[in-house]
Amino acid sequence: MIPIILAGGGGHCRSCIDVIEAEGKYLIKGIVEPIKTNILSMNGYDVIGCDDDLPELIKDCPNALVTIGQIKSPETRIRIFKTLKTLNTFLPIVTSPFAYVSSHAKVDEGTILMHGVIINSEARIGKNCIINSQSLIEHDVVIESHCHISTGVKINGSTIVREGSFIGSGAILREGITIGKGSVIGAGKVILQDVPDGSILRSAS
């Protein structure tokens, strides 16, 4: 198996570990936290350092995945991704064996496709994205880089989700609309028209 470092601990990292183990392609060498921590392991894998240690760690293991979550802002994931790129790290596409990806779709580096994901024909997924469990990405959808598509989201055909956006669990996006850059769509929202850049549409309480 191919050795890989996980950059970022926490709940999302635990979910990523499940997917990596299920795929059976990569051997997790350890987890790197953003800052020094007293946590020694996670799901049986050692915490081997913090972000400051990445230059040395990548010399020994040039493969990594950003495994810190993204809700309010993509900035931390983007920062870690860019750091890894400057170190000439290989950032693979990690795909659950329980996901379906059309042979006519395209997924870019550093993106993880989690359990139960469906990505249909001619969909385009950018770099460093989280496509979370049981989300549906329909035909001709474009999801730009550094987006988090949460659990159970349904994105209908030809919709565009611009860079750095977060789509909350169970949200439904109508076909052919555009979600502006850096937007946050709350859980369960039904979006029927274009959303401007930087919009925050909260879940109904």
Q: Can you tag this structure with a few keywords?
A:
alpha/beta; six-stranded parallel β-sheet; single chain; 3 helices; 205 residues
Give me a quick take on this structure:
16% of the residues lie in helices and 30% in strands. It has 205 residues and is an alpha/beta fold.
The biggest sheet amounts to: 7 strands, parallel
Provide the gyration radius in Å. 16 Å
Distance between the termini: 46 Å
The number of helical runs is: 3
**Succession of helices and strands:** EHEEEHEHEEEEEEEEEEEEEEEEEE
Structural class category: alpha/beta
For the secondary structure, the number of strands is 23
Stretches where pLDDT is under 50 for at least 5 consecutive residues are: none
Overall average residue pLDDT: 95
- For the biggest β-sheet, the strand order reads 6-9-12-15-18-21-23
Bin the strand percentage.
25-35%
Overall, the morphology is: globular
Helix fraction, binned, reads 10-25%
Architecture overview:
- The chain is α/β, with parallel strands linked by helices.
- The protein is built from three helices and 23 strands.
- The strands form four sheets. A seven-stranded parallel sheet has the order 6-9-12-15-18-21-23, with helices on one face. The protein has a six-stranded parallel sheet with strand order 7-10-13-16-19-22, with no helix packed on it.
- It is globular.
- The model has no long low-confidence stretch (mean pLDDT 95).
